[in-house]
Amino acid sequence: MMYTLLAALPILFFIARRITNWTRNYISALKYGLPIILLPVSFEDPWWLLLRPLFSFISYLPFNLGHWYLYTTMGWPQEDSNRSLLKYGENFVLCSPRSNILVTAEQGVLEAVWGVHGKGWGLQEDQGQLFAFYGQNVSSTNGEMWRRHRKITGLAFNEATMRSVWDETSRRAGKLSLGDADGKESKGETLGNVRKTFDLLAMQILTVVGFGQNTDLTDVPPGHQESLMESLAFILQHIMLTVIFNSLKAPDFLLPNALRRLKVSLKELRVYMQESVLQHLQSVKARPEGVKGVSLLEAMVRANEASKQEQKTGGPRSYLSDSELYGNIFVFNVAGYETTASSFIFSLSYLAAHPEIQEWIREELDMCYNNSRGSDLDTTVPDYSETCHKLVRCLAVMNETLRLASPAPMFVRQPFAPTELLVNTPQGRRSITVTTDTQVGFNPYGAHLSPQWGPDNLSFDPKRFIQTSSSGEERLVVPEGPLFAPFMLGPRVCPGKKFSQVEFVAVLARVMTDWRVEVVRDPGESEELARRRLLAVVDDKVFHISAHLKRPEAAALRFVRRGLQCEGACF
């Protein structure tokens, strides 16, 4: 009995401490005068990341007893859509034993925290370090350290890099095998299989444009156990496993196959990055001054070396260490891979449900390409500087896709000192003091699907981002402020924003030039019912670093060469 009690003491102490912290946080949350959602566990609990899938039954408990389970993952906005906004309002508090998080979609609050004047706010340290296992990076740092990272990485995303993205993406998109040549025999592919196609495309682009290595999937150089693409693919496709177990030191014989493979891939990718940095350093020294590299890593190395030359003796370090270069190239790969693959599966699904938007895009493409497609585009890539900026409808499709299916989770910031915020509460507008033990979380879906977008806020309509002048010229318009912020707000806006936009436009332009995308209908299903079923599948999202489909096998798309008719093959 005594031994049992002694063994239970750590557990009892753990529970008592959490209840104490939870009570303290609840009392603190009451002062905000906002709706409070009580969470016994939080996504800030590392152990919960592992155990959460085992407790999915909680969300099905009767009498709404498990309503809190949704909010125990950082990506709850993907599953929630704008339901919490409509139920609780623009502001509410998630109260757990770990912390209080003031969740907001209110424009004024977002401007104050993330806008140009939000210098008193920074990343929460633990969350900032999630992807820093290769080195500190632009997404893991605050203050002067962040400014140093931002300067170097910002210089790397130059027009030479964008041209490289455009050229490589256009070439590879033109080689995509999306359907039969005649378009008559294809039965279609599930959304899961379509996602795999664009996963591979994103990976190929990253290895070439990110690392500057045009390697085959199975090309393993001497001294390596895996190819660059194999190691990068395994890490990115098992990113949560990587976040949790990246520093695991256990002997291989004690580990399951997945963790053994993870150790190999992590080591291999580090070696590849070391080799690439060394190779690009030599290239920078060998190439004439002023000649810019075409890969992101080479551009980053070149900008870093230039900063070293400008370094003032005795001054603060203005350049990045090798580990910081690794950290940044890795985090850009994570963001680039997920954004590309995620945005395309959603955009193609929306386009399949809206064939009229496909025709609207093709009007722009045919005009831009002078009605030339097929043989010309098979041998040449349209010039980046002459073409990309004209494809505003393609970019509008990207914006509307990111509005409805944002890949971003709930972003959080923490004040460096107690800070006053003016917020809307159920009792009216009032000023509250956010203390340093409270975080503020940006609910992107609350903003993107806000009623402020109008009565069609839940509908797919990329034309909302297009403004036509009296002369008939179209230009892209984006609402000012945080109502639309897929790439974050203020000074910390994603440095890879244009990279992602150029990549998306290049792929969409080529796919829509060659193909028509359709919904695959079930036997006896009407076109309208198939469309509704597809949109229901697309609306059923889950977070895994970005937005993913819960049921990717429940709907399918069919790609038909332009100019060919369906002739019943899609039924």
TrEMBL record:
GO MF entry, a single one: monooxygenase activity
Keyword match Cytoplasm: no
The UniProt record lists the keyword Transmembrane: no
Signal peptide interval: none
Record: residues binding heme: 494
Cofactor: heme
UniProt source species: Neocucurbitaria cava
Protein name per UniProt: Cytochrome P450
Transmembrane residue ranges: none
Pfam family, one: p450
Gene3D superfamilies reported for this sequence: Cytochrome P450
Keyword field: Heme, Iron, Metal-binding
